[in-house]
Structure formats: C-alpha cells, structure tokens
Amino acid sequence: MTAAARKSILVVSRHAHPGSSLPRSALDTALAAAAFDQPVALLFQGEGVLQLLSEQDSRAAGVRNLRKVLDSLPLYEIETLHVDAAAAAAFGLDRDALPAGAEWLDAAGIRALLARHDHVLGF
Amino acid sequence: MLPISAFDPEGFLRELQDWTPEVAEQIAAGENIHLTPAHWEILELLRAYYQRFDSSPAMRPLVKWVAQQLGPDKGRSIYLLSLFPGSPAKLGSKIAGLPKPDNCL
Amino acid sequence: MALDYALLVLAAPASGHSSLTAVRFARALLARGHSLQRVFFLDNGTLTGLAAAVTPQDEHSPLQQWAQLAEEHQTELILCISSALKRGLLDSTEATRHERPGATVHPAFELGGLGLLVEAAQTADRLVTFG
Amino acid sequence: MLLHTLSRSPAHSALRDCLAVLGPDDALLLLGDGVYAALAGSEAAELLAASGAALFVLDADAALAGVRERLLPGATVVDDDGFVALSERYSRQLAWY
Q1: Are C85 and C53 in contact, with CB atoms under 8 Å apart?
Q2: Domains in chain D, please, with CATH?
Q3: How much is the pTM?
Q4: What is the ipTM score, two decimals?
Q5: Does any CB of chain A come closer than 8 Å to the CB of residue B52?
Q6: Of B64, B93, C11, C90, which has the fewest CB atoms closer than 10 Å, so is most exposed?
C-alpha cells in the first residue's frame, strides 16, 4: 500500500467517559489505526473534553483509567489531541486543566479538521 | 512454583497479584524461554508501561517505549523478537504478568 | 459510479431501531449498484450478534435481517472482539479460551479485532456509522 | 462538505454538538428520534434553519414518530435510496447520537 493510497481517519469523541463505553471504543479505534500505521487524529468535542481532565483516579471504581491510556498516545505516534475550545470553556476548563500538547480549535478550526480527513467516525 | 490451577489453559495467570519474579520464570519455562538479564530489562519496562498507561502495549508503542528508555539499539522489533519470539508484546506481557490480551490489536 | 462501502454499527439492536435502519441502508446501497464488503459492529453494536435474541413475531428481527443480508451478498459481519467478550458474546474458540460454557454468537457473525475496521476504512470509499 | 446524521431527540446534547460544527455547505439527515428536531415551529427547527445546512428527514422514521405532516417547510423527506444518494454526494459522514 502506498502512502498516497492511505486514507486518514478522524475519531470524534463526544461523550463523557465514566457513564458511557463509547469513549473507550473511540480510543481503541484510534489506537488500532495507529498500531496498523494508518493516519489517525482525535478530536474531543462536547462532553468528550471532560475525558482529558488530569488527576483521574480509577482505583476505587475498579475500572481502567482511560486518562492514563491517553498518555500513551504519543507512543502510538498520535502526537496531537484536538480539543473543542467552546466546549472546554462551557465546562469552565482552561488550558491548565487539559494536556499541554492539546490543540484548541474554534468552530472554523473544527470544520477544517473534519474537511481534511477521508473518514470521520463519531463516537 | 504456583500450582497448575493458578494458570488458565493458555498459561496466563488467573490472578495478576500472584505474579512474582519466580512466577515469571515459571511462565517463561512453559514458553521454552530461559530468562536472562536482557529479558528482565524488557519485562520490567512492560510492567512500568502498565503502571503508567494502565494498558498493555501493542508492538509499535512497545518498540518506541523501549527505544525511549534503553536507547535505539534495543528499541527495535528485531531485538525484541530475538528475546520473545513470535509476538514480543503478547509474549512479554504474559511473562510480565500483565492482563490477558483481548486480541483486539 | 459504483462505490465500496463499509458500515460501522454502534447501536444496540434492541434500543431504538438504528440497527434495522442500518440493514435497510445496506440493502439500498447494494440495490444502487454499490458494494459492501464488511459491516463492523463495535461497542453496544456487538449485541446484534447474540444468537439467543428473541424478537416478537410481528416485528423485524435485526439478527435475522443481518444474517439474511450476509447470506445473500457474502457481506462479512464482524463483531469487535473486546466489545463482544465484555458483553458475553463468544464463539467456540473464545469460549474455550476464557473457560465459558459455550458459544453465544450467531454463526453469521465472526469475532475480529479493530484492525478489520481499520482495514475496511482503508479500502472503502464510504464509511457510514450508525450509532 | 459533510453529511451529518442525527438520531437523538433535540433534548439531547447531540443536537447542540452537531449545531456547533454544522456548516452551510453541509447536509444534515435526521433519523430515529432526531426527526423531532424538524418539527415546524420548534426551537430546534429554527436553529437548524439558521445553520444554512441542507436539511433531510428519513421517511420511515418521520412516519414512525408521527411528524411527517408537521415538518419544517425547508426539510426534504428521503427514503433509504435517498439516504444512499446523500452518502454518494457527501464523501464524509459524521453520526451524532
């Protein structure tokens, strides 16, 4: 398969994670694409931005810590996390609350991101 | 030595907290691997990966993780394959006492 | 121009009727001359493959609809293995592997990794999600 | 140029999130409980009309919900074949649910 033939995937994650299994499925999909060396990007939109809050501790709940899995994304060569800036602001989150490398996008920025991927998967 | 009942039919630990370095030797022996310091270096990195990222790595991130921690000579698929033939991420995770993979990646 | 489609189904078959909408979409795209190699079921969508699902006789059964589609058009129906295992959907291999009493997946479906979704995305001209 | 599909009722955050990125070059197909967003005179319908996006409603779901005769005048009703035709015209789809 040549590089030119590879189709890029944008995974849009817009649910908050303790109450839904969709964020986990979104993340697994992105990790799978990266593990198979396919171009993939992640956008956290709406309530999905809450997945990025630091200091999540899942031990008492007895489930996997999705936030820690997110920290492994650079090892999968997924360097940039795209964040819906308006949603983050609506939840009172400033840049200190979210990962340092995140790219904050306004509505026009999100539309441009959607437009430059071949497939868009909404979770 | 743990009794055979401590392992499932595929040789994975039923209870992760049973894992000790001796248990790792026992699992490795079942895979015809004799653990050397070179193996241990990778097994410790696998356990550190699990602690830090709450997941077991696929092959690609494992290679990158090893390269970051031990340098580019060891952060290569061929080196990891020489230690853990076949599928280093899966086999290494098994010996390191990480959760059984769900075959998703 | 004929296009290659892949479908991603995330909706559970018994909540709403998104699963039936997806089957009708599949039939409609085939009727328009397009091709559909693979349908990938992920998250609650994997419940679609539960062999023991019972639908009232006067309603369409998502299970039967998908199975018929697969038989008529050789469409692959893949259940994401990690989503499926968590929900108790196992084929005989996984039942043995995880020491469970028996298979629970309908024979029209196969368990597979997310790599099969990624592969479908690479080859497909269109990837349509039903959530 | 995206085909958005919305299958949740307007009370759900899916509509708000969709509206946040819906552009005038896009199309929006309402299906499932999403068809309620096209009820003429509703707040949701006004927001959708203001977005400038081309608006479509899946026939079977509009009928099931009992809204077929109460749709916003700008909405076009499509059947399954029409849904496929939309997916031909718009190469990317984003599902909101």
Answers
A1: no
A2: 2-96 (3.40.1260.10)
A3: 0.95
A4: 0.95
A5: yes
A6: B64
